[in-house]
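yo

u said u wanted the structure for the complex thing, so here. seqs first:
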Amino acid sequence: MEQFLIGVDMGGTNVRMGIITPDGNVVRKDHYPIDASKRALELIETLILKLKDLIQKELKDPKQLIGIGVGIAGLINMKKGIISESPNIRDLKDFRLRDFLEKEIPYPIALENDANAFTLGEGWMGAAKGCKHYCGITLGTGVGGGMVVEGRILHGTEGMAGEVGHMVIDPEGPLCSCGGRGCLEVYASGTAVRRMALEAVAKENGLFKLSQGDLKNLNSENVFEAAKSGEIAAKKIFHEMGVYLGLGLVNLIHLFNPEKIVIGGKVSEAWEYFFPSAIRTVQERSMKGPRETVEIVKARCGDDAGMLGAAYSALIRTRLDR
Amino acid sequence: MEQFLIGVDMGGTNVRMGIITPDGNVVRKDHYPIDASKRALELIETLILKLKDLIQKELKDPKQLIGIGVGIAGLINMKKGIISESPNIRDLKDFRLRDFLEKEIPYPIALENDANAFTLGEGWMGAAKGCKHYCGITLGTGVGGGMVVEGRILHGTEGMAGEVGHMVIDPEGPLCSCGGRGCLEVYASGTAVRRMALEAVAKENGLFKLSQGDLKNLNSENVFEAAKSGEIAAKKIFHEMGVYLGLGLVNLIHLFNPEKIVIGGKVSEAWEYFFPSAIRTVQERSMKGPRETVEIVKARCGDDAGMLGAAYSALIRTRLDR
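structre next:
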């Protein structure tokens, strides 16, 4: 009997899910919008309905399904299967998500942080395929990350490791949502690009037309559009973002001596505008030995990475359970 | 037949070596000074003579020895057993130390970075005993570090991981020996304490008496003495060092979610003067989840940590070889 996994990528605005073979082929995928203002329980109940629906409609036999992986933003206590903190869905805090899902859907459930899922997905089927020691970084609304050490995702003592976005890059920098100051996230995320654009507007007015008279319209996507159309102020923002990202890369290179660092997420689409200054920073500031070992590459799985990685976590879990 | 290991801690000024049981008891130890201005080959030949001597004199039967571990400062390519870069002994660069030693002394040899050896030693017999996920930091002439992930030291793809001292703490900070700028090492090492003391002398003259009229006499040890005798300028230096160290700790906490962080090395003797500002920085700047998981503690094995950890590496190697 053919076997399948389900991978779920639960984002802040969308939930993506797919049926995936144990060798990483996506055979069916689906997505639906999420209303993060709703209560967590309601969102989880919708997820359960969608999952049951997918299983019923797409699998000939429910026994074909060997496990479900769920990638979700936040600090996850892996030991207990509890979301310790979730930025997108506030009242998920301290929710025993794994137990709850397993009660409703009788399959082995693996929970994983969304950036860890991205990292695993890229290692399984994407830009880090075959690597045993690598890091993943997602540049989205925030900055997430994951590290794979000897082929396994680094969870740390309770599953909260890999918070790449909260390395301190400049101790005197802007406040960060985590309570710290000058974290990578305040320099290299979509939110950061928007902040820098607002600052640029305030300073030189060069980006004002982007906002069509309303600064609320200014976001990382139209800053990217502006860069593509040749707007110097927009290019400068990505250049600056790249310098800071480069400092984060230096830290990862020195701490992990990775074979690859894979960078993905929505903001990574502006690659050509931030990567040159990032790689220059790495060249100027990192030690020759580990620098010569590492390759810094763009993610390849696109929007599927999180879903794939979540499914991979489930695959690993079912193997360990045997 | 009783079995033994030998652990060697090859520092910049001293070599320490000991005969150690497989359960971590030091049964005999020795040390000798090293003249780092000599050629590497000469230093290695002395090491070999000393090792042979130790084996012959202290073991009833050479077969009792199951392996030798050598901890040494520098970037070590673990795959190849080559010292890629060594700060203390310059012409050790690219030396095939493991092969050379194994040819001269017919026992399994394990090479390990000195800070990794310290970390392993503290995990085996010291402050992190029983921990599976922890970090070690050595505050000496430089700043070294190691991370243990699922009970194993993190080597990265070629063995150069764990360079805690070269996390960027302030991108605009002083130049670092690694070529970067504002690394942890330029704020939290003995060298850093000396630099800050020189700056303080220049600024306020408060520490000038320490140097007895000659600034060459100023070093981290007499700054520590001055702090103990109540000198405010000296206390301020350790306070500042603590703030920067705290930023490094925040990064480790966010990246590794460790159970413990063990801090050792000569400069850690000034614990009471730098630890309060370090821990305050951690409390102010780190995320609650991983912060509440971690305990930050002083090392316990003293000068034996590196020797113990080197022996432990050899023990692991002999187990893996079987």
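Residues 131-299 of chain A form a domain with the Nucleotidyltransferase; domain 5 fold (CATH 3.30.420.40). The radius of gyration of chain A is 20 Å.
cya
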